[in-house]
C-alpha cells in the first residue's frame, strides 16, 4: 500500500519496496526514544485489539480503515524505536543510566 502511494514502477525504474522494509529502522534512528515508543506500542496494541471488533461490525469509517492497514508498520516502527532508545539511553528526552558508559561518576572530565 505504501509503495502504491507513489505509483507502481515502470521498466527501468527503481522499485521502492526495499526502502519500505527499512522505514521502521530509519524512523527509529530519527525518533529513538523509549518513552515515546511505549506510547506508539500501546496505540498499536489497541489497534490490534480493536481489529476483531471491526471485523464483527463490518464497515468502519474510512479514516480508521487506513489506520488498520498500517498496524504492522506502526508495530515495527515502535519496536525499532524502543531498541534505538535503549542504545541512545534516552527516555522522553532525558538521559537514563542503564549502562556504565553514560554514568556521570565514571565519566569525569
Straight-line N-to-C gap? 51 Å
Instruction: Report the biggest beta sheet as strand number plus sense, adding barrel if it closes.
Output: 2 strands, antiparallel
**Domain module count:** 1
Q: Which class do the helix and strand fractions yield?
A: mainly alpha
Beta-strand content? under 5%
Specify Rg, calculated over alpha carbons: 19 Å
Q: Look at the structure and give the mean pLDDT.
A: 78
How are the strands ordered across the major sheet? 1-2
| Alpha plus pi helix count | 5
Helix content: 55-70%
Elements, N to C (H/E):
HHHHHEE
Helix-strand blueprint:
Elements: H1 2-5, H2 17-31, H3 34-57, H4 62-69, H5 71-88, E1 90-91, E2 94-95
Short description:
This protein has 109 residues and is mostly helical. The protein is built from 5 helices and 2 strands, in the order αααααββ. The protein has helices spanning 2-5, 17-31, 34-57, 62-69, 71-88; strands at 90-91, 94-95.
Amino acid at each position: 500500500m505504501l509503495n502504491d502511494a507513489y505509483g507502481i514502477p515502470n521498466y527501468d525504474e527503481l522499485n521502492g519496496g526495499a526502502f519500505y522494509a527499512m522505514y521502521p529502522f530509519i524512523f527509529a534512528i530519527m525518533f529513538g526514544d523509549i518513552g515515546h515508543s511505549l506510547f506508539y506500542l500501546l496505540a498499536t496494541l489497541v489497534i490490534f485489539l480493536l481489529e476483531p471488533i471491526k471485523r464483527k461490525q463490518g464497515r468502519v469509517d474510512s479514516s480508521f480503515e487506513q489506520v488498520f492497514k498500517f498496524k504492522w508498520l506502526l508495530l515495527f516502527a515502535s519496536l525499532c524505536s524502543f531498541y534505538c532508545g535503549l542504545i541512545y539511553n534516552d527516555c522522553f528526552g532525558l538521559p537514563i543510566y542503564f549502562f556504565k558508559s553514560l554514568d556521570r561518576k565514571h565519566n569525569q572530565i
